[in-house]
Amino acid sequence: MASEFDIIRRHFTRPVKRALLGVGDDCALFAPDPGEVLAVSTDMLVEGRHFLAGADAARLGHKALAVNLSDLAAMGAAPRYATLALAIPDADESWLAQFARGLFDLAQAFGVELVGGDTTRGPRNICITVIGTVPPALALRRDGAKAGDEVWLSGCTGDAALALAHRERRIRLGDAALAHCLARLDTPVPCIALGLALRGIASSAIDVSDGLVADLGHIAARSGVAVGLRYAQLPRSRALKACADERLAQQCLLAGGDDYELAFTASPDARARVEALAAGLGLTLTRIGSVGAGGPGAVCVYDAGGSIMHIASGGFDHFGS
Amino acid sequence: MASEFDIIRRHFTRPVKRALLGVGDDCALFAPDPGEVLAVSTDMLVEGRHFLAGADAARLGHKALAVNLSDLAAMGAAPRYATLALAIPDADESWLAQFARGLFDLAQAFGVELVGGDTTRGPRNICITVIGTVPPALALRRDGAKAGDEVWLSGCTGDAALALAHRERRIRLGDAALAHCLARLDTPVPCIALGLALRGIASSAIDVSDGLVADLGHIAARSGVAVGLRYAQLPRSRALKACADERLAQQCLLAGGDDYELAFTASPDARARVEALAAGLGLTLTRIGSVGAGGPGAVCVYDAGGSIMHIASGGFDHFGS
């Protein structure tokens, strides 16, 4: 059977260019460029919780890195390095090769070097730490939203949750809608270019991983403001528009999670710059609400008539009931 | 039931002083001091593999951080930050409080700030990434050993493996020996001060986690040299000296693992400086062998008569049979 060191050498060791030292020593060594600081984030994906047993290994390698890079995007950081800690029940060479392919394909696309990690036997668990760089004054923190700011969303939310609802047989999507939603669930693309472009423009930002309302709640709480969302203005994919179950559609839009879009706030004065960068990047950016002074931490969703809507579900919580 | 965010707030959020931004945003932000680079290492501990179900939570919090800090010690890096990703089967408040106490007590002792992480439900798994700083030219890499260097070891090896042998009923230790060996297994103390003191003195270093011979093999392979160990000169604890099973004693000494001592190489010219720093730090440092030019990657163990010994077992390998 392959040894731990064989596995690391065969599947997870690639030459590094930017780092001073990569895989193969007690630590990796690297430094930010002058004027920049490091932005670091860690996410752990557990079989049976974040992905199903038997999930496609290449897509899993992609997603495990993508959800981490999404945190760098939300900080306006440029991706640089990653470490991978991997527990697997057995040293399945084919699984490892596919997983590594998915991971390195995405890493290469965003200039990320794998600089270290750990491989052990155990219930399947993937823990990645990503490291990016950003000039500290330009970092897109959660605590900078101000009353009067506008709330923006990239792309749209709800598609990953729709795919999950289909997998769990709560709805039945058509072939085209299913393919679209499954890609959103299994191979999300982190909004790195958008995060970089929002430096100096957004007053706060977060990536939508737990659900739109819950994640905007984090901005509201950290910034000491309230956020108002206009439900009718929330962008919807074709698949979501076609969903006949209005309650499910609402849940997916507002609380679905796994979207990996960026929600951010910006002053109304910045509106033209936001629209220009959307055009430049070929992205859809939608104004979905505004920031108010009252009720720090609150997120209210308003219907087309201006009344507060009762929301059926909060965001995703790993220890919730 | 406590939510994921409650758990993080209650148990894993402490104010940071050195970092620009700690727990609670998409990323943590920090930078090395001028002239220093970051040293980063990741270790994953899995229940049933690295610790038993029902293991004391405070000791587990200590050990999970200690084994990571040991990698920083082996690099000559000063510990600065850590992230924690934690999968637990349920949100047991008492377990979490104890685990956090063990982790933060050690973190505080070494000036480490917890700056981020992830908490999720799943089979118990602890993944910590530590970040230290070191001037790049002074980092204690594995690839700097030169023919003619002497091989040194801090403390002694084998006690943690003896404790494990006792737990697995392969031997029966007396009370005092058991207490000593269990402390070495469950609450190892990383050799941070030694790593810092060896900057500019050691030509290479590694922490002994997989077993003395296996870990010196990593230095030999990376440095393109051979290492010769003199078995009779290996330091032994009182507990190991009292072990009547000579074969087990040899396995524990040479291949036991979980020792978290530092093995390092240094020029004979540096011998007086090594001995002076040992005295200054109140540590035992023992010359256990030498570096030769032949057979790159090889580690040979010599008996008192100068003959090569046949070694019963290699180092610990998570995918070995």
Protein model, in words:
The structure is a homodimer of 321-residue chains. By secondary structure, chain A is of the alpha+beta class. Chain A folds into two domains: 4-137, 2-Layer Sandwich (60s Ribosomal Protein L30, Chain: A), CATH 3.30.1330; 141-302, Alpha-Beta Complex (Phosphoribosyl-aminoimidazole Synthetase, Chain A, domain 2), CATH 3.90.650.10. Chain A is 34% helix and 23% strand. Chain A has a six-stranded mixed β-sheet with strand order 7-9-6-10-8-11. In chain A, helix 3 (93-109) links the parallel strand 3 (78-88) and strand 4. In chain A, helix 2 runs parallel beside helix 3 and helix 4 (159-167) crosses helix 5. Chain A starts with a helix and ends in a 19-residue tail after the last strand. The interface between A and B is large, with 74 and 74 residues. Strand 2 (37-46) of chain A pairs antiparallel with strand 1 of chain B.
